[in-house]
UniProtKB/TrEMBL annotation:
The keyword NADP does not apply. This is RNA-binding protein 8A. Residues 42-53 have a biased composition (Basic and acidic residues). It is found in: Nucleus; Nucleus speckle; Cytoplasm. Heterodimer with MAGOH. Part of the mRNA splicing-dependent exon junction complex (EJC) complex; the core complex contains CASC3, EIF4A3, MAGOH and RBM8A. Residues 73-151 form the RRM domain. Belongs to the RBM8A family. The lineage of its organism: Eukaryota, Metazoa, Ecdysozoa, Arthropoda, Hexapoda. It holds the Pfam family RRM_1. One of its GO terms (biological process) is mRNA processing.
Length: 164
C-alpha cells in the first residue's frame, strides 16, 4: 500500500509571511490518501465514479409493494417452529408452485431453527398465492406469518408535513 499526499490547489507561500500561517494554509490544502490505487503513476479513474449502479424495474408507479430479487420472488416466513425441517416447509409451500430456494438459519448453540425462513418462487403469481393462502396458517402446531421479504419503499422527495 502506498501513502500519498495530494495538494488540492496551488499554494502560494510568501517568504515574508509568518511561517506558522503558511504551514496552516498548506495543511488545509493537503489530503492524505492511503490504500490501493493511490500509488505514483496509478490512474485516478476511481475518483470519477460517484454513483452506484441501480436496477431499473421499469415500474415507475408511486405505490409500495413487493420487489423482485435477482432470481425470483422471496417470501419471509416468521414464527416457524424450532423443530421444523426443510422438508416440512417444502411440503407446505410446494403446492403453490415450484420452489427455487429455501433458506433456513439454524442456531449454532442448539442446532434448532431460529424461527424464520426465506422461500423463493420463480414467478410472482406463485409467491402471491402462497402468501395469501398460508399467512396465518399452522405449521407443526404453530401459527406462521408469511409476507414479502423485499418491498419497495415510498418515493423520497414528496414529504408530507403533519400539522396538528
Amino acid at each position: 500500500m502506498a501513502d500519498v499526499l495530494d495538494i488540492n490547489d496551488q499554494v502560494d507561500i510568501d517568504v515574508d509571511d509568518d511561517g506558522e500561517q503558511s504551514v496552516l494554509r498548506l495543511k488545509d490544502k493537503v489530503v492524505k490518501r492511503k490504500g490501493r490505487g493511490f500509488g505514483p503513476g496509478e490512474g485516478r479513474e476511481h475518483e470519477k465514479v460517484r454513483g452506484y449502479e441501480s436496477i431499473d424495474n421499469g415500474d415507475q408507479s408511486e405505490e409500495t409493494g413487493p420487489q423482485k430479487s435477482i432470481e425470483g420472488w422471496i417470501l419471509f416466513v416468521t414464527s416457524v417452529h424450532e423443530e421444523a425441517t426443510e422438508e416440512d416447509l417444502n411440503e407446505k409451500f410446494s403446492e403453490f408452485g415450484q420452489i427455487k430456494n429455501i433458506a433456513i438459519n439454524l442456531d449454532r448453540r442448539t442446532g434448532f431453527l431460529k424461527g424464520y425462513a426465506l422461500i423463493e418462487y420463480g414467478s410472482y403469481e406463485e409467491a402471491a398465492m402462497a402468501r395469501e393462502a398460508l399467512n396465518g396458517s399452522s405449521l407443526l402446531g404453530q401459527t406462521i406469518g408469511v409476507d414479502w421479504c423485499f418491498v419497495k419503499a415510498p418515493k423520497k422527495g414528496k414529504k408530507r408535513s403533519r400539522r396538528h
